[in-house]
C-alpha cells in the first residue's frame, strides 16, 4: 500500500513543529535579544551589518525555537555598568559624539581610535548599550540560576579596549559579563572561536588566574589584530591562563574539530571552570566576506555542542561574521543545539527575507573546500603539543578567595560587597567540597 491511511489538513500541517527533540534531557535556555539592535548601520561600505541579527531572529522565530526557551527583551546597559570596565573619558566621548558634531571633536578622534574600522555612526552609543545590556541580562539569569544556558547573539564584541574601540567593537560586553560572573564564580573559562584573536578579553584578564581565556584564530603576525601567537600565555599571576591556538588559512572541518576537542577536553578537566563564556564568531565559517577558513555550519556548531556537553552553566555570545545569510544560519543552528532539537534542513517557507537564502534556501549550504588547507597535520600537532605542555603548569584548578576581584573593577558599595561575600562564602564551601571530592565519589 503506497498511500498513507491518514493525512493532515493544511491547518494541522501549519502547526507542525519544524524541529524534532533529540533527547529527554534539555537544559533551561534563555534567549536575550532587543529587536532594535538590528536597525543600526555602520555605513554603506562597512562589512559589519547589524541586520544579520534581524535575520537570525527571523530564523529562530520561523523554526519556532522560542517554544523551547525563555525569551527576554533586556533593557540597555546603563552608563554606570559600562564604567565597570571602560574609562570615564571614553564613555563620555561615546555618549556625546555623533556624525553631525565630528568636526567639533576632531582632535579626539585619533585618541579614541575612530576611523574606517570604528566609524562614528548615528546612535553608536545607544547601539553599544543595547548589545551590552543583553549580555548583562543573560549573565544575570545564569547567576540567579534561572538559566543553565543564556544566549545573546548581538554580543561577543571581543576587541574593544578599556579606553577605545577596536575591530568594529565599541563596548566589550564580554569583559563586563565576566566581571559580573567573577562575583559569584571562582573560575570563569572564556572560549573564542571567532576568526580573529579575542585580544580585548585576553588583555583585560591577562594578570589573573580566575579567568582562563582560550582563542582559536588565524594568526600570521599581520592579520588583525596581530596578536594571539601560541607563546602569549598571560603574565604574573595569570601566566599560563591565556591559551592561544594560531591557525593558518583554509582549515577544514575535520582538522578544526579534532584540534578543538583535543585541547578543550583536558583544559576543562584541569581548570574546572564553574561557568563558561563561549564567543561564537561566525567569520570562521567558509565563504565569509572577511574570512579565510573552510568551516561548515555543522562543524562550527559541533564545537559549541562539545562545550555544552560538559553541563557547566554557559553564556553563549555572537561576534564576528560578515556574510549575513550565513551568520544567521549558523546562530539559528547553534540555538537549536542549545535547545537540544534537530531542525529541518529546508528553511521555513514563511520567514521574511527568505530570498536572502536563495538559491537553495537551506540551513546547511556547502561552505567548505573553497581554499587550500595550509594547516598540515604536523603543524597542528605541534600547536597542540605546545598547548598541552602549557596546561602542565596549571597543577589543577587554582584555589581562590571569592573576594578577589581583579584590580580597579569593584564598583559596589560596602553593604553590597558584604552581602556578596556572605553568599560567596557559602558557595565556596560547596564548590571546594566538590573540587576536593575523589573521582567516583558521590556528593550528597
UniProtKB/TrEMBL annotation:
Residues 405-426 are annotated as: Disordered. SUPFAM superfamilies: Arginase/deacetylase (SSF52768). It catalyses: N(6)-acetyl-L-lysyl-[histone] + H2O = L-lysyl-[histone] + acetate. The keyword RNA-binding does not apply. InterPro entries: HDAC_I/II, HDACs, His_deacetylse_dom, His_deacetylse_dom_sf, Ureohydrolase_dom_sf. This is Histone deacetylase. Pfam families: Hist_deacetyl. A divalent metal cation binds at residues 194, 196, 283. It is an enzyme of class 3 (hydrolase). Substrate binds at residues 117, 167, 322. Residues 46-337 form the Histone deacetylase domain. One of its GO terms (biological process) is epigenetic regulation of gene expression. One of its GO terms (cellular component) is nuclear periphery. It is found in: Nucleus. One of its GO terms (molecular function) is metal ion binding. Keywords: Chromatin regulator, Hydrolase, Metal-binding, Nucleus, Transcription, Transcription regulation. The active site is at residue 159. Belongs to the histone deacetylase family. HD Type 1 subfamily. Its EC number is 3.5.1.98.
Amino acid at each position: 500500500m503506497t498511500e498513507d491511511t491518514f493525512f493532515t489538513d493544511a491547518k494541522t500541517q501549519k502547526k507542525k513543529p519544524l524541529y524534532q527533540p533529540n533527547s529527554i534531557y534539555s537544559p533551561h535556555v534563555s534567549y536575550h535579544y532587543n529587536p532594535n539592535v538590528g536597525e543600526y548601520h555602520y555605513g554603506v561600505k562597512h562589512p559589519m551589518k547589524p541586520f544579520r541579527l534581524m535575520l537570525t531572529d527571523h530564523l529562530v522565530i520561523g523554526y519556532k525555537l522560542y517554544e523551547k526557551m525563555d525569551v527576554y527583551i533586556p533593557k540597555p546597559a546603563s552608563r554606570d555598568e559600562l564604567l565597570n570596565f571602560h574609562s570615564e573619558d571614553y564613555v563620555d566621548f561615546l555618549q556625546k559624539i555623533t556624525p553631525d558634531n565630528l568636526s567639533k571633536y576632531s582632535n579626539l578622534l585619533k585618541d579614541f581610535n575612530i576611523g574606517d574600522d570604528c566609524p562614528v555612526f548615528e546612535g553608536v552609543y545607544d547601539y553599544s548599550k543595547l548589545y551590552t545590556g543583553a549580555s548583562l541580562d543573560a549573565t544575570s539569569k545564569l547567576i540567579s540560576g534561572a538559566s543553565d544556558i543564556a544566549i545573546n547573539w548581538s554580543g561577543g564584541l571581543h576587541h574593544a579596549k578599556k579606553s577605545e574601540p577596536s575591530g568594529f567593537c565599541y563596548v566589550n560586553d564580554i569583559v563586563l559579563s565576566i566581571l559580573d560572573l567573577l562575583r559569584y564564580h571562582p573560575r570563569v573559562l572564556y572560549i573564542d572561536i571567532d576568526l580573529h584573536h579575542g585580544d580585548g578579553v585576553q588583555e583585560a584578564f591577562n594578570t589573573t588566574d580566575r579567568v582562563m581565556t582560550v582563542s582559536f584564530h588565524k594568526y600570521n603576525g599581520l592579520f588583525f589584530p596581530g596578536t594571539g601567537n601560541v607563546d602569549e600565555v598571560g603574565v604574573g599571576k595569570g601566566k599560563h591562563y591565556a591559551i592561544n591556538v594560531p591557525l593558518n588559512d583554509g582549515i577544514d572541518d575535520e582538522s578544526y574539530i579534532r584540534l578543538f576537542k583535543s585541547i578543550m577536553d583536558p583544559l576543562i578537566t584541569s581548570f574546572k571552570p564553574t561557568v563558561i563564556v563561549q564567543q561564537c564568531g561566525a567569520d570562521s565559517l567558509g565563504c565569509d566576506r572577511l574570512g579565510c577558513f573552510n568551516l561548515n555550519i555543522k562543524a562550527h556548531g559541533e564545537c559549541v555542542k562539545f562545550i555544552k556537553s560538559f553541563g557547566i552553566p554557559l553564556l553563549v555570545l555572537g561576534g564576528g561574521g560578515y556574510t549575513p545569510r550565513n551568520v544567521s544560519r549558523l546562530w539559528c543552528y547553534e540555538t537549536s543545539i542549545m535547545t537540544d532539537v534537530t531542525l529541518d534542513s529546508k528553511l521555513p517557507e514563511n520567514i521574511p527575507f527568505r530570498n536572502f537564502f536563495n538559491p537553495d534556501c537551506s540551513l546547511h549550504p556547502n561552505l567548505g573546500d573553497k581554499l587550500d588547507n595550509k594547516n598540515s597535520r604536523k603543524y597542528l600537532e605541534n600547536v597542540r603539543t605546545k598547548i598541552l605542555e602549557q596546561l602542565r603548569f596549571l597543577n589543577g584548578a587554582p584555589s581562590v578567595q571569592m573576594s578577589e576581584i581583579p584590580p580597579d573593577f569593584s564598583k559596589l558599595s560596602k553593604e553590597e560587597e558584604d552581602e556578596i561575600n556572605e553568599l560567596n562564602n557559602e558557595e565556596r564551601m560547596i564548590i571546594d567540597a566538590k573540587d576536593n571530592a575523589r573521582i567516583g565519589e558521590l556528593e550528597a
